[in-house]
Design a protein that fits this description.
Structural class: mainly alpha
Low-confidence stretches: none
Strand content: under 5%
Helix content: over 70%
Largest sheet: none
Radius of gyration: 22 Å
Number of domains: 1
Distance between the termini: 19 Å
């Protein structure tokens, strides 16, 4: 009887580890603003500066990395699902593959909850991956064509939801403007008109909070671990319920399905012809940068208005998906041509410890920014946050190969496998 066990070193796909390493480092480029600034992830005018160097780093992040690093990370998770199931089915066709898979997936949800509540990260992605992963099992035997069609369908549905939400926002905005024009006396408004104004005000305040609300958030996060936890818990209750149902599920599910298709086609293993990766890079960057540039310039010229931000959501996936494929094509070309081999080895080590490094980023930022440590939340300008990013990158690029030179797995990876296989 075959012994079901974790992937051996000989079975690992080197280019997947490299890509995973780039993704886990790259995702910090976006997460850092949420770690360090209040409500400034999308709108730089809320906090952290929006001129000079601060504006430059916002532009660069919006053009090249927003959504695409998360997309790359999600593609790889979908690919990992296929590899895990194929490996265990081939070793023992009658073995407890489904049991191991679901135990592994539930454990990932537990890691995500720890990341959210214990490590105070309200932008955690692991819970999303785990919940969506619960249904991926039923798609694992589909052909690449069926997986890609399924991914396209999910993206189309998600776009439809976004269109409906945008139309609803426009209706509320126009109705609120009409009410304000006709009736200046709040006491004279009907109940329906009052509700309309309240809905519009709620959207505005959610995306552009008042200075006093922003300052209260900063003070709360900086005060203590307990007060930061109260703030984070409120945010997590929204992102992991309402927002997940409306947007998070489709966002993650579509890219996981695409990742499953690409691994079955050999694209993610580096086995496709070089011209495929060159086309991915060229077409991906051409379309992705065009869309991202249009969104970025329009949003900036509007004075970072709520109207333009809401409108940019309509084309979000049209820019994000091509940019993700452009990054992937470029990484594969660099690997196939054997460029920067030493850097590839180091990045592969970071990728082999992707879960550990992802969680470590949360722990480090919790210590740096919240009342659990240095309480720097809201104290750095946007561009200064990237000095923190460089320091974390340097630490993880150094410690990952050193750790794996002595131990087979990263700490979190070891624990995840122990919980999956119920043995050391």
């Amino acid at each position: 009887m075959a012994v079901l066990a974790p992937t051996s070193s000989a079975e690992r796909i080197h280019v997947l580890d490299i890509t995973r390493g780039i993704a886990v480092l790259g995702i910090l480029l976006l997460n850092i603003t949420a770690f360090g600034l209040p409500f400034a992830y999308e709108d730089p005018t809320n906090w952290g500066g929006h001129e000079g160097k601060d504006l430059v780093v916002w532009r660069l992040a919006s053009l090249f990395f927003e959504g695409s690093m998360r997309g790359l990370f999600t593609l790889l998770f979908g690919a990992g699902v296929v590899l895990f199931l194929q490996r265990h089915r081939s070793r023992d066709p009658n073995g407890p593959t489904a049991l191991l898979y679901y135990r592994r997936t539930v454990c990932l949800i537990l890691f995500g909850l720890i990341d959210s509540y214990l490590f105070l990260w309200d932008g955690d992605i692991l819970v999303y991956y785990g919940v969506v992963g619960l249904i991926l099992y039923f798609f694992s035997k589909l052909s690449p064509r069926a997986l890609m069609l399924s991914a396209a369908l999910v993206v189309a549905v998600q776009t439809g939801v976004t269109v409906v939400e945008y139309e609803r926002y426009c209706q509320i905005r126009e109705a609120a403007a009409a009410v304000q024009q006709m009736q200046r006396d709040a006491a004279a408004r009907t109940w329906g008109e009052h509700i309309t104004l309240t809905e519009h005000s709620s959207i505005e305040h959610e995306l552009k909070p008042s200075r006093s609300q922003l300052q209260y958030t900063v003070d709360t996060v900086r005060e203590s671990y307990a007060s930061a936890l109260r703030h984070v818990a409120q945010r997590v209750s929204f992102t992991q319920t309402s927002f997940f149902v409306r947007h998070g599920f489709a966002d993650v599910f579509s890219f996981m399905l695409l990742g499953m298709a690409l691994i079955k086609m050999g694209v993610l293993t580096g086995a496709a012809p070089r011209r495929v990766y060159a086309w991915m890079a060229f077409a991906g960057y051409t379309l992705g940068l065009t869309v991202n540039a249009f969104e970025t310039v329009s949003y900036e010229r509007s004075g970072f208005s709520v109207d333009m931000l809401m409108r940019s959501y309509l084309t979000y996936d049209l820019g994000r998906l091509p940019m993700t494929l452009g990054h992937l094509g470029t990484i594969m070309l660099i690997h196939r041509y054997g460029l920067f081999t030493r850097a590839q080895q180091v990045l592969a080590a970071v990728g082999r410890m992707a879960l550990t490094n992802y969680l470590a980023q949360s722990v480090i930022c919790m210590f740096l920014f919240t009342g659990a440590g240095l309480a720097l939340y809201g104290q750095l300008d946007r561009h200064e946050l990237y000095y923190v990013v460089l320091a974390i990158w340097l630490a993880q690029l150094l410690w990952s190969p050193l750790w794996l030179g002595r131990v087979r797995f990263g700490p979190a990876e070891w624990l995840w496998r122990k919980m999956t296989y119920l043995r050391l």
